[in-house]
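Handout, page 2. Input:
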Amino acid sequence: MEGLTEIRWHGRGGQGAKTAALLLADVAFSVGKNVQGFPEYGPERMGAPITAYDRISDQKIRVHSNIYEPDYVVVVDETLLHSVDVTSGLKKEGAILINTERTKEEMIPLLNGYEGDVYIIDAKDVCMKTLGKYFPNTPMLAAIVKISKVMDEQVFLKEMETSLKHKFAKKPEVLEGNMHALELAMKEVK
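Output:
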């Protein structure tokens, strides 16, 4: 389907991968896109591997299954690279985004020969600078929007601000920290 972007998220329970996938779907919907955002996991346990998915399109989406050949993969927890084949089905013309303190060159050998684009971001560093706590989903969300170009970056930031204002109406410092994390992540992703 032309104009369809499929994203697969890999994380662990409690890291916010599911929340980020659903938030991306909400924001894309609010700007007029057709979307699907859904998680897949077994018995939910803190720290257990989870997978979440996004489909974003300008046209009606007629597929209702998991995503087996994503355009993009987001790895929220790099330790999953040792236990999950995160590159399975990943399109060569797509890209993988990994949350890591390591360099891109250090990550490539862990990707099962994947030959597409590899992006990295140190989400922990972004979080500590902007939020003072480690919530990797916020910077990962901004980074995948920048990489995938599923929507204009400024439109994304504006929609996120609107969404977060409702969620954190009584905590303006949390809103401000999250907005700074989103903006910094867009600058820091390499």
